[in-house]
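FIELD: query
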Amino acid sequence: MSDLPYTGGMFEHRNQPLVPRSIFLRHQARYAGIALAIVAGSLVLGILGYHFSEGLSWIDALLNAAIILGGMGPVDALHSAAGKLFASFYALYAGIVFLVVVGLKAALVLHRFLHHFHVEVEEASEEK
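FIELD: result
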């Protein structure tokens, strides 16, 4: 196995050793921050959409946006065509946001898991 030094990217190359746990946790924190920013921005988008398209109060718009973003159905009945269109597209968008956030959080863990076993297999084959 080549002992190329870690170059500071988000993922180490397959010929590099695993990054230390402290760096891995720092990367996890960075990805958690990105995921939180995506969710917060999506919530704000939903609040604004419900408030302006359906005329809901700010608190009702927050409730509807949070429930849709959380994967459940709407709370308030929608009356306007604009509100119904917004809710349709926001629900589709929320599903995609969920997949992106899960992907962000899983990417580092999955990469580390696979890299760990790749390193072990290479070390075992070198010993033979």
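FIELD: remark
The chain has one domain: 21-122.
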